Each structure stands twice: as structure tokens, then as C-alpha cells.
Amino acid sequence: MSRLYSRSSSPARSISSRSSWTGEPNKNGQKHKQHFTVKALDEDTAIRSLIFVVNQEHIKPVISLHFNCHSYGVVSLPVSLRHLYKSMTTPSLQIYRERRYPLEIDTDTDIDTVLENHDCSDTENMLADQRTRGPPSPPVPTLNEINRGDIPIIHDCDDNLLIKTINDLIQVVKRLREELESQRRETQSLRDILERCDFCRPGVQCYDTVEGFQCGSCPNGYSGDGRHCKPRGGCDLNPCHHGVQCVDTQEAPYYRCGACPQGSTGNGTNCHDLDEPCDPRCQCTNLNPGYRCDPCPVGFTGSSGVEGVGLEQASRNRQRCYDIDECADGRNGGCASNSVCHNTEGSFYCGSCRSGYVGNQTTGCHNAPGLCPDGTRCDPNAECIRVARERYTCKCKVGWAGDGRTCGPDIDLDGWPDYDLGCQDPRCRKVRPE
């Protein structure tokens, strides 16, 4: 015969008991769980002992329940533990508990011994109770047993005295009810404290193991076994950058780092090389200690090279390179005359001929016949006449007549062409209009 029992002296928050049996049969490899609930238990009853009895020789698959030394009958199972155990490839039976109650498993022991170990005084009565399904009814006091010192005995039938006594009794019951409620709250509070009690230092993880509780590691900045943690030197973890002095302090983060080495910048914990002194267009080389900046590239003017050590010198002697405008050298950047020179950062390039000129950078840019500086196109036998600062018009040369854009021979020099030129202007006609 095998028996499983759990004992606790704390009042139960929810006394409904649930046992979860877990096995792994050979057939499908799935775990089998069985839960059962005892609804007859009072919600406010304290759990002193809770015993589950499994009789392996019994034909029916049942489990007997004993609560606080009283039998509460049996609970049927769909399959016996013996059958379930034999069907496992690797036999294993797991028992779970939801709270920190003492848990014991007792095998090959009779129920008398188990009940005696749980301070059940009348073992024979307990065995007789196994045939019942619920707890014994509380004893009903007889008339002779009612003899309380706080309630006076009444020997007459005085109505006023009876009313006064009843009122006093009501007040006493009210006070008792208030005291009971206060005690219930205090007991509940103590129970919560006990259930949530951790033996580890606040902030340290507590693990519940078979051997008992185990504490995790102490928080950052502390050393110890988890139960007792004390501040340690912050510099023990080498938080500062290599080569930076570290000083222990009494306040978080319990250390202070010195200044970064020369040639680098940062907060002491993290330091990085000081690359900023050089112009972005120049190559910067880290030295030990210090730095070196290469000269400004072609097309820029400025520093021919900088070397230094430390942040102060780097801030005071920042290297700067400035673009050279090659097109403003008085020679149009070396481009052909009357052509466009385009300046770029660090360089330049030559464009096309200016307006009124034709050619390229190889042959040069020259005046175009009949093309005025503002782009006005004239007849090859006409001239460009400026009528405003940036405005030109066309006029036929001597011996030619027309509107300037189109000119024809004028042998008699009367200002009119010798034949119609076919343009819209009146000056293009052969005969002067009347």
C-alpha cells in the first residue's frame, strides 16, 4: 500500500483540494493528467493534514482522502496507478504542490501509523470514519452544558430585564464578530507574508529546489551568496577605459573614471581617438600620442599640414582648406576667350562659346557673321546696331536695302531694294509705298 500526504498549519485560502497525477504511457507518448476536487470542505478551515491513500491491491481504481484526521471517502480514477505505471516505457510519477506546504510520500505503511504520525488521537474512530463521505457533524450542546459566565442566568420573567439582556447579548455578539473579522484579516495577512516570504536579499532571484531554496547572484555593485550582499568596489569590474584611472565611490555607480588619455576624447568609461582636428578633405593619421593632418589637396588653399597633441591644441589649431576659384585668375581659367569657365570645388571646366560667338575650345570663339551679341540674327550684308545697353538691331549696309534681317541690292541707292525681298516689312518692297 502506498500513501501520499501533505500537511500544513496555515489557514487555507481556497480549501478545495486538487491532486494532479501525471504519467507517460507507451501507446502514444502523451502525458496523462488526472485532477479531482473535494467540494465538501469548508473554505475557512485550516489545513493540518491532507492524506491521499492509494491501495495498489484494490481492484477498483480509487484514491481515499483523509482531511484533518477525518475520512472523506474515495475518489474514482479512470485508470489505476498500477496499470498506468506498468504501461510506461520509463516509469515516472510526478506530484505537484502549488504552495509551500510540507510534502511527504510514505510507501508500504499502514494507515494507522500514518494517522498516528499526524497526531490523530483516536485511530479506531478515524478508521471507522473511512466508511463515511463527509466530516462528522459538530456536537450539539445540551441544556446543562450552556453555562457561560458572561451571560447572566435569569430566574424570573421580568420583561425589561429580558430585553436588556438580549440587547447586551446582541452587543457582545457584534463585538465578537468585529474581533473575529479583525483576526481573520490579520491571519490572512500573515499567511500572505509566509507564502511570499523569500529568504534571499531583496532584488535577488529565489529558486525553489528539492533540497530547499537557492538564491541567485547579488545585484550589480554587490557581492555575496545572495542571502547576504554587501557593496563592493565599483572598480573591481574595470569599468574605465584602458589606461584611465578608476576611483571607488560610495554612491552609484560606485566608481569614477578619470580623463581620457591625450590624443583621445570621451567620458573616461569610453574613449575614442581624436580625429576631428583635420579638414574633412585631408587624411588624418593617429600618432602615439597625438595626430597629423596631411596638406590640403590640389584645388584648395590653406594648411600645408598640421601636427599636434591633445584636445586643447586640436581645438585651437583646427585645419581648414578653402576652394580656389580658377575662373577668377584673370585668364578665364585658361579657357578660350569669349567662352564660359565653370568653377567647381577643387577644380573647374571650360564650357561653350558665349552668346554671339561661334567655335570651340580648340579653334577658339569668334564673332558669327550677322549674329549680334544679344543673339539677334542679321543678314550677312547688315550690321549690328546697339540701341540700348543689352539690345541690338540690324541695319543693311550701303548698297543694300531691306529690314536688316533680309537685305537686297540697292544700285540706285534710294534706300529701296531693286526687287521685292518677300518679307513683311515695308522696306522689303521694290517700290516706295505712296
Automatic annotation (TrEMBL):
Pfam families, per database record: COMP (PF11598), EGF_3 (PF12947), EGF_CA (PF07645)
Compositional bias (Low complexity): 1-20
Domain EGF-like: 231-272, 368-408
Keyword Ribosomal protein set for record: no
GO molecular function, one term: calcium ion binding
Coiled-coil parts of chain: 163-197
Entry keyword Coiled coil: yes
PROSITE patterns membership: EGF_2 (PS01186), EGF_3 (PS50026), EGF_CA (PS01187)
Renumbered residue ranges of the record's region Disordered: 1-34
Disulfide-linked positions: C240-C257
Domain of life: Eukaryota
Ranges that cross the membrane: none
Keyword tags: Calcium, Coiled coil, Disulfide bond, EGF-like domain, Repeat
InterPro entries: EGF, EGF-like_Ca-bd_dom, EGF_Ca-bd_CS, NELL2-like_EGF, NOTCH1_EGF-like, TSP/COMP_CC
Protein name (Swiss-Prot/TrEMBL): EGF-like domain-containing protein
